[in-house]
Amino acid sequence: MKVAVIGVGHVGLVTAATLAYFGHDVVGHDEDDAKIDSLKRGVAPFYEPGLQELLDQVVDSGKLSFTGDPAQAIRGANCAFVCVGTPARADGEANLLAVENAAWAVARNATGEIVVIQKSTVPVSTADRLRSIFAKATTHRVRLVSSPEFLREGTAVEDSLKPDRILVGSDDPQAHKVMKELYAPVLGGDCRYFEVDIHTAELAKHACNAFLALKISFANALARVCEASGADVVSVADIMGSDPRIGRDFLNAGLGYGGYCFPKDLLAFKAVAGRLGYDFGLLEEVMKINRGALDSTVRKIKDALWNVESKRILLLGLSFKPGTDDVRESPALNLAKALTAAGAVVVGHDPQANAAAQHDLPGLKVVDDPYEGADGAHCIVICTDWPEFRDLDLVRLKGIVTLPIIVDGRNVLDAGAVAEAGFSYIPTGRPPSNL
Ligand code: UGA
User: Fold this and answer.
1) Domains along the chain with CATH numbers
2) Would you list the DSSP string of 68-126?
3) Do 49 and 118 meet the contact criterion of CB atoms below 8 Å apart?
4) Ligand 1 test: best mutation among 216, 291, 334, 408, most atoms within 8 Å of CB?
């Protein structure tokens, strides 16, 4: 099948590469010239494990190409995936201008019947707006589908090649036929195909992200109570998680959730619910607890250091989660801003995200070597649970820091080992040691 993918960011590029891998002829388009230039040179514009290798394979096989011209991507396509950004507006509502522009581009450039697959996360009822554009702007038949994406950064290639579900919102049998053909290589086995109406599909994506954020905030609220009572939030989460009705995933307390999706999706979901007449106050509480998780870490650092002015603080992990160089809405960068504002000298280290962090926060000093960052530090803070931080040589670190204090914002270290190396250890929602 001939497929156009409009928007080749984290979702669009992985989707384009996956569909090409499945054997379809895919053309990716983006209005960001730098991104398209990079892709034309064969270089993935961001870090995602396995993505470069997958791109090499499908570009070499001639199944995937890129263009800055939307007409070139859409001309002759049987299907067009819309994978553009939907950032938050100041009032919390999703900004759908890029989605609207993509729809106009498809309508103007379609050369025959086309299935339009809306993959960007959008508020419920966006499809009605899109339908009216297609009704006005093209004489070709447009079969509209909402098929939100569930891939996670850091495991996006794996999630996309082996999805656990394909969600398809459409009441058009022909559209379902096309979707099943597109995803034929993965349907059947463990991957469920959900066939629902278009509004249900749109809303389900917001519901999933909001619920995952709710689990994280529940764990962070528990962490505060555990800290006050001397209980251990990791054990509490393990006990809760052993109940299959609850599940252990996304119960890790820490600095809170960040990234491009959860923060904007919670705002948008709350806003659209409000517009529809329901005050989804629970979501406001989830967001409040998330902000509190960061504030609590700032407080712990200040308590440990007494006066933070001029103290050197090393932040380990700058990306919003491990396995990515994405620093959008990264709790680590928000922490860096808060500590810098309080007068601290903040140094950051990330296995992949140093350049992106520096780009977003030009004042932040970043180092490639965590030991260089620790040299003379008064406090080390673990902000992102990159697996490499578990293997840090604590004895070596102890030899080079000015004050031996570790604040573990992701509970990655072993308390016994940290104390044995001579550090004061301040984890999240667990009893501190060696204070
Ligand atoms: C999220 C969803 O998990 C995906 O299913 C969805 O497709 C995607 O958003 C999207 O809407 O595009 P992602 O933003 O890549 O994926 O990252 P997550 O793995 O969900 O993590 C989000 C944040 O929560 C990270 O900052 C992570 O560190 C934090 N987190 C996660 C916790 O603080 N505790 C946990 O237990 C789990």
Assistant:
1) 2-196 (3.40.50.720), 206-286 (1.10.1040.10), 294-426 (3.40.50.720)
2) S-HHHHHTT-SEEEE----PBPTTS-B--HHHHHHHHHHHHH--S-EEEEE-S---TTH
3) no
4) 216
Write out the catalytic residue numbers: 261
Closest C-alpha to 147, from 211, 81, 103, 213: 81
Nearest CA to ligand 1 atom 19: 152
Look up the pTM and report it: 0.96
pLDDT the model gives residue 188 = 83
pLDDT in tens, 112-135: 999 999 999 999 999 999 999 999
Please report the pLDDT score of residue 352 as a whole number: 97
Q: Residue 349 pLDDT > 90, yes or no?
A: yes
- At residue 434, does pLDDT exceed 90? no
Asked whether 207 lines ligand 1 (CB < 6 A), one says no
Tell me the pLDDT tens digit for each residue of 256-304.
999 999 999 999 999 999 999 999 999 999 999 999 999 999 999 999 9
212 C-beta closer than 6 A to ligand 1: yes
Tell whether ligand 1 has an atom less than 6 A from the beta carbon of residue 320.
Answer: yes
